[in-house]
């Protein structure tokens, strides 16, 4: 064995000695930037946008899986000769970032109100500069081959211009309006939230059955079931379903609202569920989004009994100044004393919480800014129904379409300080974070500027939009994916991507969600330190066998580590056997099989089958299946069978087939395990060798 090969393979594979050096080699090559790739000017483009993680974020298992999937796709396309661009960036994450900085200030005994808006925003920028890019650096440790020179932050000046342009467009088109409607309100964060920013948690509650007497016959009651009796102080009607025979003769009559002694109508509305409770529901138009819509249809008055602090208003009368929980106790006691509480039943129900601070959400009447959704939602729905945009797995199309077909106008104003200010004079609110991230596929490429780049070359926006694949999680299909699609169609007149891959959700081994607070979270960087980045990537992808809830098991990372060692040993044997056996890359792919013996022909046939299978599976987003196929070929067909045969055959053809097969294996494995494959490639006996990351992807006809 030559000195070089002996030094490189004398010890077992140690990822700690390899990965940082290899990544530095990639970065120094400049090949993450598609402008530097050794490809033809007319090469096809392939573009992906990294879903921008929050600047408050650190790498978790979901990030690691999603980044690995995208890296597999971009590395394969780069090797196939595409002008491959993967754009990274971070999201300013309005509420989340403001909360983090406020907590930091609280430790110093200071609030944002003590500082004032301008000084507080200076503190946020200081925090962002210190911590905001941590997650991107962590992605590098995992091997992500993004074009870091194009990193975008959603509060960059160029991105601000995009947000302002989009707002102005919608506003002048009459799609943005200010109105008083019921919205979701977090009393802790003191801001509105959209329906999609809520987290629902199962909680033990009580279903209270309250008697509403008929005005003309107080001995007759309509019984209403509710989990929130405190809101009855703002009731302006009771509603039943039009087809509910139990109430046919009562619809249109007048009831007396208990405690308040106010007259309210009994109305019929098809939104009422006949099966819930008694089939009669209280209607509080100022404190329920659904009730607000009923109120609009029946022109009911709006009575606001809960304010933005979560306190009861003067309109509540007997509970003024109390918080909602204390008011509930007082209302129930008062109803019992009046003989108007029929019964109470224990109930397990879903309660909405703020997705950032976990506070229970109130629904209150508030003046906010909204985007009219009817036309935009139809555009986004038609894009999928027509097949212009496809989901993988396909079943997620239903989730997407169900929401769009039933969506309400989008509340885009937030009462916080950190974010994109609504660009209207005298308005202090900022825009919903998702308003700006909806522009990501084109704003991150320079929109609204269409100017040509230097020397007459096309701009990034002209060259790389639309993108081809979006890889993301199912939890933001409606928050983000749908909004990017209608935004792309509205502003670019073109879909932003043609394929949406929804990666599995990574759960703990016992099926619980991963959470630091629950003690079920796992830090991917700890796993990288223990097993190496390649083994971590292997372990994640290995488990992606068509499931949508992945019960993560560390044993698969150990299998990945063992496979790395196996590959290292295979390479050592092949390079020993082919010492001083140099072959030119241009002729390397051409082996006349007719002149080979049966073992050589068989391994090449299986290799060709593997190449085709892996190629097809990656393109079909079947990443786990592709990796299983590769594993079986490398470990069993190549190592267990052919290499054992080659140990007894020291022929020229055997050496050619060993080198050829190893080279093909390294290329196929590179998107999955980039570090070890690149390191082995440096020792391959090929005269015209380049970095493996830009070598030619093998084809079945090779």
From TrEMBL:
Enzymatic class: ligase
InterPro entries: aa-tRNA-synth_I_CS, aa-tRNA-synth_Ia, Anticodon_Ia_Val, M/V/L/I-tRNA-synth_anticd-bd, Rossmann-like_a/b/a_fold, tRNAsynth_Ia_anticodon-bd, Val/Leu/Ile-tRNA-synth_edit, Valyl-tRNA_ligase
Domain Aminoacyl-tRNA synthetase class Ia: 22-424, 425-552
Known catalytic reactions: tRNA(Val) + L-valine + ATP = L-valyl-tRNA(Val) + AMP + diphosphate
A single GO cellular-component term on record: cytosol
Cellular compartment(s): Cytoplasm
UniProt keyword terms in alphabetical order: Aminoacyl-tRNA synthetase, ATP-binding, Coiled coil, Cytoplasm, Ligase, Nucleotide-binding, Protein biosynthesis
Record EC number: 6.1.1.9
CDD domains: Anticodon_Ia_Val, ValRS_core
GO molecular function: aminoacyl-tRNA deacylase activity; ATP binding; valine-tRNA ligase activity
Domain named Methionyl/Valyl/Leucyl/Isoleucyl-tRNA synthetase anticodon-binding: residues: 600-699
Pfam families for this protein: Anticodon_1 (PF08264), tRNA-synt_1 (PF00133)
Superkingdom to which the source organism belongs: Bacteria
Any one biological process term the GO annotation gives: valyl-tRNA aminoacylation
PROSITE patterns, sorted: AA_TRNA_LIGASE_I
Predominant location: cytoplasm
Quaternary structure (record): Monomer.
Family: Belongs to the class-I aminoacyl-tRNA synthetase family.
UniProt name for this protein: Valine--tRNA ligase
The species this protein was found in: Candidatus Azambacteria bacterium RIFCSPLOWO2_01_FULL_46_25
């Amino acid at each position: 064995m030559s000195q070089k090969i002996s030094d490189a393979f004398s010890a077992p594979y140690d990822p700690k000695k390899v990965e940082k050096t290899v990544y530095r080699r990639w970065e120094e090559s400049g090949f993450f930037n598609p402008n530097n790739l050794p490809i033809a000017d007319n090469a096809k483009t392939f573009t992906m946008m990294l879903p921008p993680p929050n600047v408050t974020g650190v790498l978790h298992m979901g990030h690691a899986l999603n980044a690995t999937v995208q890296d597999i796709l971009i590395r394969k396309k780069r090797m196939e000769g595409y002008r491959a661009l993967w754009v990274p960036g971070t999201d300013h994450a309005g509420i989340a970032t403001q909360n983090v900085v406020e907590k930091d200030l609280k430790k110093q005994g200071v609030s944002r109100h003590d500082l004032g808006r301008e000084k507080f925003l200076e503190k946020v920028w200081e925090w962002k500069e210190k911590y905001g890019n941590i997650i991107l650096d962590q992605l590098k440790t995992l091997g992500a081959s993004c074009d870091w020179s194009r990193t975008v932050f959603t509060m960059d000046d160029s991105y601000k211009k995009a947000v302002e342009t989009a707002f102005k467009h919608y506003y002048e088109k009459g799609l943005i309006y200010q109105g008083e409607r019921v919205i979701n309100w977090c009393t802790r964060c003191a801001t509105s939230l959209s329906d999609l920013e809520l987290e629902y948690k199962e909680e033990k509650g009580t279903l209270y059955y309250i008697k509403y007497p008929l005005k003309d016959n107080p001995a007759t009651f309509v019984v209403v079931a509710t989990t929130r009796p405190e809101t009855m102080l703002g009731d302006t009607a009771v509603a039943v379903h039009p087809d509910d025979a139990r109430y046919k003769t009562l619809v249109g009559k007048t009831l007396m609202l208990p405690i308040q002694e106010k007259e309210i109508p009994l109305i019929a509305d098809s939104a009422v569920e006949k099966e819930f409770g008694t089939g009669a529901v209280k209607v509080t138009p100022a404190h329920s989004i659904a009730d607000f819509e009923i109120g609009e249809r029946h022109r009911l008055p709006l009575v606001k009994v809960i304010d933005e602090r979560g306190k009861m208003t003067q309109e509540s009368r007997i509970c003024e100044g109390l918080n909602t929980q204390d008011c509930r106790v007082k209302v129930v006691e008062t109803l019992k004393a009046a003989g108007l509480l029929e019964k109470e039943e224990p109930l397990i129900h879903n309660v909405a919480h703020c997705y950032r601070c976990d506070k229970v959400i109130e629904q209150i009447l508030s003046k906010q800014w909204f985007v009219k959704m009817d036309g935009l939602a139809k555009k986004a729905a038609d894009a999928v129904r027509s097949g212009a945009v496809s989901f993988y797995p396909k079943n997620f199309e239903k989730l997407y379409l169900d929401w769009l077909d039933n969506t309400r106008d989008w509340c885009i104003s937030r009462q916080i300080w950190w974010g994109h200010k609504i660009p209207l004079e005298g308005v202090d609110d900022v825009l919903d974070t998702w308003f700006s991230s909806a522009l990501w596929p084109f704003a991150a490429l320079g929109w609204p500027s269409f100017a040509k780049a230097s020397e007459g070359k096309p701009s990034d926006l002209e060259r790389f939009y639309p993108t081809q694949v979006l890889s993301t999680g199912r939890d933001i299909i409606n928050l983000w994916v749908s909004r990017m699609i209608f935004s792309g169609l509205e502003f670019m007149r073109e879909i932003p991507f043609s394929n949406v891959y929804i990666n599995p959700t990574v759960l703990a081994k016992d099926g619980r969600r991963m959470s630091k607070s629950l003690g079920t979270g796992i830090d991917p960087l700890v796993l990288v330190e223990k097993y190496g980045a390649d083994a971590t990537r292997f372990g994640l992808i290995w488990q992606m066998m068509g499931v949508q809830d992945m019960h993560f098991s560390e044993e698969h990372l150990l299998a990945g580590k063992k496979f790395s060692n196996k590959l290292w040993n295979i390479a050592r044997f092949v390079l020993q056997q082919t010492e001083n056996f140099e072959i030119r890359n241009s002729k390397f792919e051409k082996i006349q099989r007719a002149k080979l013996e049966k073992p050589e022909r068989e391994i090449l046939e299986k290799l060709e089958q593997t190449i085709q299978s892996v190629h097809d599976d990656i393109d079909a987003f079947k990443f786990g299946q592709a990796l299983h196929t590769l594993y079986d070929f490398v470990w069993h067909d190549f190592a267990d069978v052919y290499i054992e045969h080659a140990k007894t055959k020291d022929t020229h053809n055997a050496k050619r087939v060993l080198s050829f097969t190893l080279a093909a294996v390294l290329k196929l494995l590179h998107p999955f395990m980039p570090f070890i494959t690149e390191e082995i490639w440096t020792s391959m006996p090929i005269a015209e060798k380049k970095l493996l990351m830009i070598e030619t992807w093998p084809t079945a006809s090779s």
